[in-house]
Structures are given as structure tokens and as C-alpha cells.
Design a protein that fits this description.
The chain is mostly helical. Helices cover about 65% and strands about 0% of the residues. The chain is flat and about 80 Å long. The N and C termini lie far apart (about 60 Å).
């Protein structure tokens, strides 16, 4: 005679009919990024369409004193983010926090 236990082990990989929370979150995040950049491109092309044919005007010059520090901060922040990813992959909690 065979007996069954009252509590069966639930598989740790999740349900076959329900998507992973991480997958859904990634799809939602990517969708929001897509909409954000689509709006930026739409604004850019709208400005180009309604302004004079030579846009930006010839007298507009890039201000390097303002643009260079922001570019450097942006590049350095991506480097620190990548170092955090490497620390997380190694399991280094201290390196991930700092």
C-alpha cells in the first residue's frame, strides 16, 4: 500500500503558467526606456521640422566648459556601476555597497 504526504514539495523554479517576476520587471523597464527615448526623438524631429532649415543656427557653439564636466561624470558613473556589477557577480557585498 502506498501513502502520499500531505505537503508536496513545490518546485523552486516557479510555475509553468506564470512568468518570472524578474522577467516581467525587465520587460516593463525596457518598455519605459523605449517610450522615454521615443519621446526624446519625437521632440528632436519636431523641433527640426518647425524651425528654420539650418538648425541649429550657425552662431550656436557647444559650450565645452559646461558639457565636459557632465560628460566626465556620466562616464565615471557608468564605470562605478559596472564595478558594482562585477562585485555582485563575485558575491562581494562590501564592494557592491561602495
Amino acid at each position: 500500500m502506498a501513502s502520499a504526504t500531505a505537503l508536496e514539495k513545490v518546485p523552486s523554479h516557479g510555475s509553468l503558467t506564470r512568468p518570472s517576476v524578474v522577467s516581467v520587471g525587465t520587460i516593463v523597464w525596457l518598455s519605459s526606456e523605449l517610450m522615454f527615448f521615443a519621446a526624446l526623438f519625437a521632440m528632436y524631429f519636431t523641433i527640426r521640422a518647425v524651425n528654420e532649415p539650418n538648425w541649429p543656427p550657425k552662431d550656436v557653439v557647444l559650450d565645452l566648459k559646461t558639457a565636459a564636466p557632465f560628460t566626465i561624470v556620466l562616464v565615471l558613473s557608468s564605470i562605478t556601476c559596472q564595478l558594482g556589477v562585477f562585485a555582485a557577480e563575485r558575491g562581494d557585498v562590501g564592494g557592491l555597497r561602495y
